[in-house]
Amino acid sequence: MTKYIGKSIKRVEDKRFVTGQGKYTDDIKLPGMTHAYLVRSLYAHATINSIDTEEASKMPGVIAIYTGADIPEAIAGVPCGWQVDFKNGDTMKEPPHPLLVRQKVRHVGDGVAIVIAETRAQAKDAAEMVDVDYDIHDAVTCPKKAVESGAPLVHPDAPNNLCFDWELGNPKAEVEEAMSRAAHITELEFSNQRVVPNAIEPRSAIGIYDTAYDKHTLYTSTQNPHLIRLLLCAFVLGIPEHKVRVVGPDVGGGFGSKIFHYTEEALVIWCSKELKRPVKWTAERGESFLTDAHGRDHVTHAKMGFDEDGKIVALQADTYANLGAYLSTFAPAVPTYLHGTLLQGLYTTPKINVDVKATFTHTNAVDAYRGAGRPEATYLLERLIDLAALEMGKDPAELRFKNFIPAFDGVEQEGYVTQVALQYDSGNYEPVLKRALEMVGYEAFREEQAKQSNGKLLGIGFSTYIEACGIAPSAVVGALGARAGLFEVAQVRVQPTGKVSVYTGSHSHGQGHETTFAQVVADRIGIPIEDVEIIHGDSDSVAFGMGTYGSRSLAVGGSAIVKSIDKVLEKGAKVAAHLLEASPDDLEYADGKWTVKGTDKSVGFADVSLTSYVPHNYPEGLEPGLDFNAFYDPANFTYPFGAHVAIVEIDKETGAVKLKRFIAVDDVGNVINPMIVDGQIHGGLAQGIGQAMHEGTVYDDSGQLINASYMDYCMPRADDLPSFEIDRTVTPCPHNPLGVKGAGEAGCIGATPAVVNAVVDALWKGGFKVKDVPMPMTPERVWTAMNS
Amino acid sequence: MVVKGQHEFKVSREKLWNYLMDPEVLAKITPGVTKLEILDTDKYKSVSDIKIGPVKGKFSGKLSVADKQEPDSFAIVMEQLSKIGNAHAKVDMQLAELAPDLTTLSFDGKAKLSGIIARTGQRVLSGVANTLTKEIFASLEQHIEEDIAKTTPLPSQVTETSKDNTTGFFASIINFIKKLFGIKT
Q1: For the segment A195-219, what is each residue's pLDDT rounded down to a tens digit?
Q2: Contact between chains at A704 and B121 (C-beta distance less than 8 A)
Q3: CB contact under 8 A, B86 and A42
Q4: Which of 27-56 (B) contact A at CB < 8 A?
Q5: Does the ipTM exceed 0.85?
Q6: In what order do the strands lie in the sheet with A725-728?
Q7: Is B146 exposed, middle or buried (0-12, 13-18, 19+ CB in 10 A)?
Q8: Residue A498: which of A540, A469, A527 has the closest Cα?
Q9: Helix or strand or coil: residue A326?
Q10: pTM for the complete prediction?
Q11: Which of A18, A755, B1, B120 has an alpha carbon 20 to 30 Å from B93's alpha carbon atom?
Q12: B61 touches A at CB < 8 Å
């Protein structure tokens, strides 16, 4: 039955990717296509006095230049897809995000004008000639300083730059009371710095208007074409949805940054109708730095209380979350329902309160980035528990074992209900840490660490994380403020000859869906994998879809495919029964054929499909055809977990940190393609380690992003990383048909605190009682921590 | 970006003050301008044509002398606009007489950059700017020495300076960017 599931099948899509035949948005060339270039604000906060386009419009090849004044008033801007309210019930502040700014720019990179020309170079040359006269104002970039009195206001109708304040969990008084009885309290103020997603393919969009059919097409590098179509039609341009086709062709990485509906997508559609010619816009790398929604950017103060025995008794977490100048599509959900809800972690903490102040600043928007809120929660918890172990002189692994939630499978034992609004589906936490310790050779390592004598400091850091993914049950997220359902859609179209075309609402931008999904389909139907094709990304061929993010594709999208296959096989059984002159109840389906139980009478899948399309001899009253879709709305989130361990060596003289080993034991439920899951874990680890050691977005006081290039922004490279040592345990998800939990974000969620903890452990054991080294832990920062 | 430092000149404070208030001298020590036009008392318009690799930029800007406390202190307020980004700076200048013919000029200011010049290499620009500012004052010192040796010319209404774009504070930034991009100067 499982010929493909569980096998490391090579990715079918890689053939076109590695031979340069992938088709990305910018590869698309159309007759009569024009090129757009955005004039962007040079300043973080300024009033536009005037925009002079006269000289620019005379430049060679220029077709049109539009400013904010040219966009009809009725087009208010791009919307936000998630509403989080103030503690007192007031609605969050939701200032408009215009396609082009009319009066006031609010971050460097804000769109001021769009220049359209015959070539990209001509558009760029002309854009440079657009003369914008500004009055420059003071800016604020830090989420905590933004609420201080006297801070420059980003939006006049958001006092103190507050979008909302929010809390979750037990009442503060209860947490304080529990904290007051604690034998030890570990307290830490830290920043979870802003990072740039850096997808290898810059964002790109082409707007096409077909006058013959009065129909628009948008090609865009997106993670969710249908969502973009919905937002574009219903909230931005007011075009009927059936008159818009959105295609997300091959997409070169997203990491969350391509979930969101960006102004450029609406602009190219609007411009293409104005000009009756296709309009293409592709970001330059500098624009990607300035305008792709960023990730993280929290300033947090947290306290964790322990009893004499080392059991956690209380957790208080207070966070300032930076949302940037405008609300990106899912921005409000990230520091709240994807962060606060994860603060139970793997621990039995009885009292938890999380308080979040989400603020506007004169910076680019912040939204979901690989992990989205869960890395921030994991960082908070795992930094505190490791530091507590150092402060209390306890072993960090032992301290975790003492606090782990006992195992539950979600079937015999109920899911674990947390203090912060979730019910975990299934979990068995001890084995992942035990396995990680085994792989480390923990005792031997501690002996080696104690003996260190080469002028270097050895350290080990742990991170035992949980995440909520397989996003998400629509009713639950609806109650929490989501303005969309988060189900997924699949259509399994069996062709007359028994070949299968699967249309999925999930969107692959590097994850390998064309392979993983095909493995599921081939096994479930019992046909060769070559007979299956996975089609995604085109709103005109795929019925609907919510797209790919939150490690949801297999858990939610894959489940929708399984539900569709169930329908295909149910109907197929009726046809087979007719052909075999038996009752459907007497048939069993295996290896691609229906067999009358206890006999050798059987009929194959392709015979049934052919009969369904050539229904000459066919059951009475049954519709022809073999083509089903399913909408799958998950019953719960899924909760992967794991244990990550970093081993570092610090050069005492320079503060340089070398990551010597990284061990990751993850439990992502059942695994369809181990190679692809390994790849996802590896990539996630690299990004998580990157945040700990290399990456960090720097805005200066005036709101300039001063490291917006690969010369200035440090990305992790292969030679920065050790060869990862990874393993898995399997605790199946009890509520989806595949038992899968999701693996896309796990590495990125677990890795970051493990590395920082390892550095702090090394310093502590070397006699430097340092509580924190700010990320990214550059040699200078580590050296400063040692020498202050 | 912070610019800060000091330089000693072998002239009296009053003489140094006069040099610094001379538009021709000002043209020489501040941005690498090709043209300095007097707009009003203590207000100038400066223009410079610069080509950096594929980016051709005409830098134009305003320069003014403010907060004059003769002969103790003044400030240079600068606004330079170009296609590769703009610079807004205010630099406070302090003159302190150490001995009859020895004056220290201290400068302390902040430059706010935008555009490509802000987001590429700015983190290391500050240190470079300070080092290069020393060179600018060295050239002023040289000018003073040469000038003492001959008669001081009268400042004209429009001063065309013939110097190339290889000296001056702003030109130093440009040169630094050229180095970053590996462009031969």
Answers
A1: 999 999 999 999 999 999 999 999 9
A2: no
A3: yes
A4: none
A5: no
A6: A456-466, A641-651, A657-667, A725-728
A7: exposed
A8: A527
A9: coil
A10: 0.92
A11: B120
A12: no
